[in-house]
Amino acid sequence: MTVTKPKSIVVIFGATGDLASRKLFPSIYNLYKKGSLTESFAVVGVARRPWTNEILRENVAKSIEKYKPTEAELDDFCKHFFYLPFDVTDKSSYQELKNMLSSLDNEFDTEGNRIFYMAMAPEFFGTIAENLKNEGVTDTNGWTRLVIEKPFGHDYDSAKKLNNDIRAAFQEHEIYRIDHYLGKEMVQNIEVIRFANALFEPLWNNRYISNIQITSSEELGVEDRGGYYDKAGALRDMVQNHILQMVALLAMEPPIRLETDEVRSEKIKVLRALRPLHVDEVDSYFVRGQYAQSEGLDMKGYREETNVPEESNTETYVAGKIYIDNFRWAGVPFYIRTGKRMAEKSTKIVIQFKELPLNLYKDVTDVEPNLLIIHIQPDEGISFVLNGKKAGPHGLTRRVKLDYCNNCLDGMNTPEAYERLLHDCMLGDATNFTHWDEVALSWKYVDTISKAWSEKTAQFPNYEAGKMGPKAANELLEKDGYHWWPILDNNYYSV
Length: 495
Ligand code: BG6
Prior knowledge:
With 495 residues, the protein is of the alpha/beta class. It has helices at 18-33, 53-63, 71-78, 91-108, 125-134, 156-167, 185-195, 226-251, 260-272, 282-285, 417-427, 436-455, 471-478, 490-493; strands spanning 8-13, 41-47, 81-85, 114-118, 144-148, 175-177, 209-217, 286-289, 291-292, 317-322, 334-339, 346-353, 371-377, 381-389, 397-405, 463-464. Strand 1 (8-13), helix 1 (18-33) and strand 2 form a beta-alpha-beta unit. Helix 1 (18-33) crosses helix 11 (417-427) and helix 9 packs parallel to helix 12 (436-455). It is globular and about 80 Å long. 6-O-phosphono-beta-D-glucopyranose (BG6) binds next to loops. 6-O-phosphono-beta-D-glucopyranose binds next to loops.
């Protein structure tokens, strides 16, 4: 396969912010260093602050310090970066940007290709998109693409408004909505595990799978994001996007080809098949939690965090049971849970297979269900839990775990999600970005849950910081005869 090396200018709105220095600059550097970019690229940082090219370059240099570039490497890289102080509501800023981009096109041979990356507060996305178009910044001989960070709206209505605003200036195929989970190595591996192994696909349905569990737990609290988080909560922050995207990848039908439209249309079908909830049944399907202080671990409770109201009713934890009402998945619960200040940072998917029709060993031993575990992070890999013979008397079985560790392989350095996604965008591959229909359907699903929760004050706080969430999350599975498989103790799965 020939790998094309993209030529483009990336305009970063919000270049003085956290996302730019934590994720975007390092990702561009890694692409450059690996030779995935040619010299034909430039980055223009725009933001309100009166920075200069030099200040931006100093910040870029700082953000890639950990890769230890030599002086010469640093100079070569940083000379591609430019800064423009910018007022998003002032038309003259767009004129200046337009002129700057045409001269950079000549200097770096970028052929008029432009990526406009929105790495800033979402309330300006619409204004920026409109001005880019009206002021002719998007009129070029090359392609133009708009990259949008989350949150993409706050609910279905606000997302639709935002979408209408940006669609006035960019067409759907030019819009790249980021869900950084789709850039993770092991999230991308879900498709390969499913569609490149004769072993799994025949079993991947309600005849053989009893339930699927997705856990994305975080050790950290809300840090300095209390202001944003208190308006969002775990449901909007994690479930509407990352978790439902993983559900869609796990549940979709094999696409006829691995092309953007084909993959997206299969994911959309899953989201259309999510069993809608009525407001009054939300409590039987979803559990919310908020972390309390942990004295033992010296951790604050959520309500003590900066910029969080003392009586906050915002959930920092969600567990839920999702049904997909189609032929393949009818009757199979997809249990999901995610939260801040849980015991460990970990994202794992456990696929639990049904038990055999007859357990020949039941008098002597417990035969465990087979599990396929997809370890998304921090460890990346796949485990398969089987039953084998226990050494000694005939008939005793024991749990056996087959493990494949992706990031343990020598020389394997998994690229950051952002690196992959930026590169995909430069190449015009939108497969791992979310289509509007996916965003819309996900919002419609979670809006009912938010509505139900906003109507009732929760009994918060209800889980201790540093633990695995509220008791009700265990009961959610227990009433179906299941339990959460441990994510903490990897040894659990080995013998
Ligand atoms: C972001 C959320 O989208 O994802 C954060 O806004 C969350 O609150 C983060 O911490 C988790 O991402 P990751 O890659 O660390 O699992």
